[in-house]
TrEMBL record:
Family recorded in the similarity comment: Belongs to the GTP-binding elongation factor family. LepA subfamily.
UniProt KW Membrane keyword: yes
CDD domains: EF4_II (cd03699), EF4_III (cd16260), LepA (cd01890), lepA_C (cd03709)
Keyword list, A-Z: Cell membrane, Elongation factor, GTP-binding, Hydrolase, Membrane, Nucleotide-binding, Protein biosynthesis
Annotated GO biological process: positive regulation of translation
NCBIfam families: lepA, small_GTP
Organism: Kaistia nematophila
Catalytic reaction annotation: GTP + H2O = GDP + phosphate + H(+)
One GO cellular component term noted in the UniProt record for this chain: plasma membrane
The protein's name: Elongation factor 4
Membrane topology, as annotated: Peripheral membrane protein
PANTHER family cross-referenced by the UniProt entry: TRANSLATION FACTOR GUF1 HOMOLOG, CHLOROPLASTIC (PTHR43512:SF4), TRANSLATION FACTOR GUF1-RELATED (PTHR43512)
PROSITE patterns: G_TR_1, G_TR_2
Domain Tr-type G: 7-189
Amino acid sequence: MSTAPQDNIRNFSIVAHIDHGKSTLADRLIQATGGLSDREMKEQVLDSMDIERERGITIKAQTVRLDYKAKDGKNYILNLMDTPGHVDFAYEVSRSLAACEGALLVVDASQGVEAQTLANVYQAIDNDLEILPVLNKIDLPAAEPDRIKAQIEEVIGIDASEAVLISAKTGIGIPDVLEAIVTRLPPPKGDADAPLKAMLVDSWYDSYLGVIVLIRVIDGHLKKGMRIRMMGADAVYDVERVGYFTPKLVPVESLGPGEIGFLTASIKEVADTRVGDTITDDKKPTAEALPGFKPAQPVVFCGLFPVDAADFEELRAAMGRLRLNDASFSFEMESSAALGFGFRCGFLGLLHLEIIQERLEREFNLDLIATAPSVIYKILLTDGSEMDLHNPADMPDVMKIEEIAEPWIRATILTPDEYLGAILKLCQERRGIQSDLSYVGTRAMVTYDLPLNEVVFDFYDRLKSISKGYASFDYHLTDHRPGDLVKLQILVNGEPVDALSMLVHRTQAERRGRAMCEKLKDLIPQHLFVIPIQAAIGGKIIARETVRAMRKDVTAKCYGGDITRKRKLLDKQKEGKRKMRQFGKVDIPQEAFIAALKMDD
Ligand SMILES: Nc1nc2c(ncn2[C@@H]2O[C@H](COP(=O)(O)OP(=O)(O)OP(=O)(O)O)[C@@H](O)[C@H]2O)c(=O)[nH]1
């Protein structure tokens, strides 16, 4: 089978803010071009994982090849790369964009431009992609296509006069999108006669085929049986299979310039493949490698411990399985006086953390305790050396610390005007420094520099709740800045609970400590003795609450009469017991930890 002429190829991504209809549009395009029969067509085929489907968010970038016969009578190959919309996965967006010539910019015609619309479209513009604006949801009575067109021009600065108007839900405008892809997006321009040069876009583990590598061929041809070299990893493999997805897997003999597809080559682990690496012909290598990507670095850390210590090995195995397909998730063993053996885990952000935790609990049936999330602090010691601190429990003695620096982010928030006051207040409380405020029609766009430490604590939930869900938010890491940071410890019955200790800014310590003590007071069940709960910095107690002693046995009020009721109570206690951890003489229920994680002001 010969490879496709480049003039008939279009490679594109869809960029959008969350919920503006990217997945629905992708489904429609697959359906309209006959990639799957109606029977095979399940809702949102590109979102393959259960959790994605349930939450309606796209996590792993996927690619499908569509065959399209255009009005000019020619057959085209359209490669659609799906991209995730959430800030935690911005890295996956950037690598998908690097493999394309064009992008559909999908904007909800009733909502308009949002924070992630901006973040994603700027990435596409930075990658020199041709942008095709698409206004979705025009079936909604609230749709205002003309106003949103003007908004796109004003805010993003691209021509939106010929934006395609569609409803991905009802199917209106889908044929126009397909025609616009062919007529308005450029074809790839590779050199067919040059040595093979391909970009490694993504890789994942498949239980039948082993590691599957998604690639974009730039120049030359990738053929079955050929010996390839991964230039960055400096490894050599023999190609076993070559093909593409429709989304069904279709094997072919070779892929030519401009094509997107996959290869398998007995690669053992996903960790052996580097996203952005250059793949070339080992016999006739390309002269120059592609610039490559920086690997995605975990920015949020937390401890994950099994509720039942006997599940430790199972947890290790489950994490290993998840990591096979998610190189941005990291874990290493950790032991805590309070929680026993577990793992210190690194994530791209809070959503990533929640998803991994949920998958471990749901797919592997594990009961977990998560400690409060933390960021990476850079500590300068008095002896001149530096260290990265991932876990507050490992903080060196304050006498040895010269300076602690924390990561800062640049956040962009778009909001209807009426919520602006409350949002500015929230950012201010979180030590934010305002850097810009402008208006996009009736909506305010505000830019803040914020310490990431203040954002990992429920910032996003608070933002959503004070704006009734209307504010949108996007951020990127900027730098580390020194701050007056202290270690806040929580003592239960005089014993420090290492899993609850955290680094906080001195100005926030009392508020955080007090809130934590108040929460714990309600969450720790009464015992036969009085339990003091204290928050402390160094040796100094800054807040205190008390759990009063219990007076009598819970079953006493059953007077021994109603035996079923008594048994029920005992069962309930047993169930509760399973989820408890012992701290000295005190049992603390799992909810106390979850509450610490979700701590409100
Ligand atoms: N009325 C209407 N609703 C739509 C249309 N397109 C999508 N939706 C709905 O909007 C919601 C979000 O659509 P998705 O396709 O999941 O959005 P998405 O942008 O892929 O979201 P993420 O995968 O989370 O980034 C769903 O409830 C869709 O049914 C449309 O044209 N009209």
